[in-house]
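Sanity check. The docking grid for zinc ion depends on where the pocket ends up, so I'm generating a full predicted complex first rather than guessing from homology. Inputs follow.
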Amino acid sequence: METKDIILELRTKKGLSQDELAEKLYVTRQAVSRWENGDTIPNTETLKALSNLFDVSINTLLGSPRKLICQCCGMPLEDSTISREINGDFNEEYCKYCYADGNYRYDNIDELIEVCVKHMSNEEFSPEEVRKYMKGLLPQLNYWKKYSQLGENEFCNFKRKLVEEINELKIEGMPKVDTLYSLEGNKVNLEYRLPNGQYTKFLNENETYFCNQLECEFGGERCFGIVANMDFILVSTYEENGINPELVLYKKR
Ligand SMILES: [Zn+2]
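Predicted complex below; grid placement will be based on this.
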C-alpha cells in the first residue's frame, strides 16, 4: 500500500473527516487532500504526528519501504513489536524486548545469543545452528557495532589512566611513559632472584599485560621495564634481553 491509501484508511478507521485530521495536525484541509491524492507526502514532523495519532510506525505510514529488524536481536519488526521511547514515540531501531523505558536490555552479546537459542531452536533449527547463525548476525547489527566501539573507548581510557598512575610514581631515572603495549605474560615473565637465593616469576603466561620498556635517563646498561594490569603495577630494571632483573616497585591498584 502507498502512503496516500494508508493515510486515507487510517483516517476513516478513526472516523475523522479531512478537516478534523487537518485540525489535529495544524495543517490545512488541502494538505490532507494532497496527501490522499498522492500529490505530496507529509514532512518528517507531520509523519511523526501522524504516527502518534494513529499509533503506527513511520515505516508503516510510508508503505513499509524498509524491512525493519531489531538492531540488537535481529527480530523482524512490526508495529506491535517495535520499541517505544518513554514518551510513547516509536523507536524503530529496536524491538520492545531489547529496548524499553529508555533502557537497553542486553549488554552481553553471549547472553543474548543464549536467549535466542532458547526461543528459536526447534526441530528444524538445532540449538547449535541457531547459535552459529546468531554469532554471525548479531555483530553486524548497529547496537553491537556501537557496543564494541564503546568497549574500545573504555579500553583506551583505562590505558590512559594507567599511564598517568605510572608517571605519578616518579621513579628516579625512569623517563615519562607515553603509552603502553599489550603483551602476553610469557613475553615479559622475568625470573627474579629472591633474598634466599631462589628464583620466582610473578606473571601468568597466558594473561595479557600492559607493558613498556624505557631507557634509563642516566644512561648505563640497564633499562626499565613496566608491566601492569587491572590489579597492579610492576617496575623493574634489567640488562639487555631481560638479564639480571631487579624489582624496583610493585604497587597494588
Ligand atoms: Zn530485539
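Relevant for the grid: Residues 70, 72-73, 75, 94-95, 97-98 surround zinc ion (CB under 6 Å).
Also worth noting: The mean pLDDT is 93.
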